[in-house]
TrEMBL record:
The keyword Lipid metabolism applies. Residues 8-153 form the DAGKc domain. Its cofactor is Mg(2+). One of its GO terms (molecular function) is kinase activity. Keywords: ATP-binding, Kinase, Lipid biosynthesis, Lipid metabolism, Nucleotide-binding, Phospholipid biosynthesis, Phospholipid metabolism, Transferase. It comes from Schleiferilactobacillus harbinensis. SMART domains: DAGKc. InterPro entries: ATP-NAD_kinase_N, Diacylglycerol/lipid_kinase, Diacylglycerol_kinase_cat_dom, Lipid_Phosphate_FormReg, NAD/diacylglycerol_kinase_sf, YegS/DAGK_C. This is Diacylglycerol kinase family lipid kinase. Belongs to the diacylglycerol/lipid kinase family.
């Protein structure tokens, strides 16, 4: 893949802030980040998210109106979690899809969510202040893979930086983000415990299901699938290594299918994934690396994309890969 060298026009940052990310953590670090931006003397403007989905609208409109010129390179600097980054990528890419003459604006990122899997995948510090210092030293954008899917039933399409999970991880995310337990734990600053609580709930509630999978090499049908995750990089669920060898530069997506014969067997497989990352060697685990992918489910299942709820529905998706320029300190670019 070509390394997109950018013109060295002066950078202007559009800072897209979601103070609600990370159970409010982003709101706490934002005053410090703002002071650091002012102290660095960089040119910037702040766009604060007022409601879920607002960041997509900002990113889409900025991509249309702030195309790079010889005098100015606009960079979208995201302060939030994986969900906020997801919204930003969708704003940029949907604008370019509607008007292919547009250049996608590069995205910089200061992680302040609860999972921060994208930051982990690209080797960006999890500490927002450290990440900002590194981001401000970046001088050019470089492309990385992002996933794209078409939802045939709902007739819509979407982009993702991390993964789309249908089945077990979809259920954990959906029940956690939707739950009274999480709101109660948030009040006593223990929101992080909500995931383990719902993990064990999902372990007993998630029944095996059928899925038909078509990859570059053919079609296969599974009848006892429990987790069907299409991923752009190794991590999901806040640092769990679902696909250890997944690359953001190979122009391909990794698909991991875990089958379930009993709650105990699935728990064992999941434990291997969390502790030793060697789950893909087991008989009930299946791994595909593919440029294109069709997933067709027979029954309603829960889904998540980049840690955001997709709802419970009968999924019929086609996936492929495209590129997004990122304004990040990618010292490890060749290894991604
Ligand atoms: N003004 C707002 N009010 C309420 N929610 C918002 C607002 N703006 C954005 N959101 C929502 O905040 C949610 C959380 O954001 P995000 O995913 O970035 O953080 P996170 O879930 O803590 O991080 P991670 O995905 O890394 O675990 C998203 O679902 C987004 O839609």
């Amino acid at each position: 893949m070509a390394d997109a060298q950018q013109p060295t026009a002066p950078v202007h940052y559009a800072v897209l802030v979601n103070t609600h990310a990370g159970n409010g953590n982003a709101g706490k670090v934002w005053p410090t980040i703002l002071k650091m931006l002012e102290a660095a003397g960089v040119s910037f403007h702040v766009y604060e998210s007022q409601y879920p989905g607002h960041t997509t609208i900002w990113a889409r409109s900025l991509t249309r109106t702030e195309q790079p010129t010889a005098d100015r390179q606009m960079v979208l600097l995201v302060l939030g979690g994986d969900g906020t980054l997801h919204q930003t990528v969708n704003g940029v890419q949907s604008a370019v899809r509607d008007n292919p003459h547009l250049t996608p604006l590069p995205i910089a990122y200061v992680p302040s969510g609860s999972g921060n899997d994208f930051a982990r995948a690209v080797g960006l510090p999890q500490d927002p202040e450290k990440a900002l210092r590194e981001v401000l030293a970046v001088t050019r954008a470089r492309p990385l893979d992002i996933g794209h899917y078409v939802d045939h039933r709902q007739q819509r399409q979407e982009y993702f930086t991390n993964n789309v999970g249908i089945g077990f991880d979809g259920r954990v995310v959906s029940t956690t983000n939707d739950s009274r337990v999480k709101r109660a734990l948030n009040l006593i600053h223990l929101g992080g415990l909500a995931y383990p609580v719902h993990f064990f709930g999902a372990l007993f509630k998630q029944r095996p299901f059928a899925v038909r999978i078509t990859t570059d090499t053919g079609t296969q049908r599974f009848t006892k699938a429990c987790l069907v995750t299409t991923t752009n990089h190794p991590f999901f669920g806040g640092g769990v290594t679902v696909a250890p060898s997944a690359s953001m530069r190979d122009g391909k997506l990794d698909l991991v299918v875990l089958e379930r014969t009993s709650a105990l067997q699935f728990l064992g497989l999941f434990a291997l994934m969390v502790l030793f990352h060697n789950h893909l060697k087991r008989k009930r685990a299946h791994h595909f690396v593919t440029k294109q992918l069709d997933l067709t489910f027979g029954e309603p299942e829960y889904g998540q994309e980049d840690g955001e709820i997709m709802g419970q529905q009968i999924y019929d998706f086609s996936f492929d890969v495209c590129q997004q320029p990122f304004w990040l300190p990618l010292d490890n670019y060749d290894q991604l």
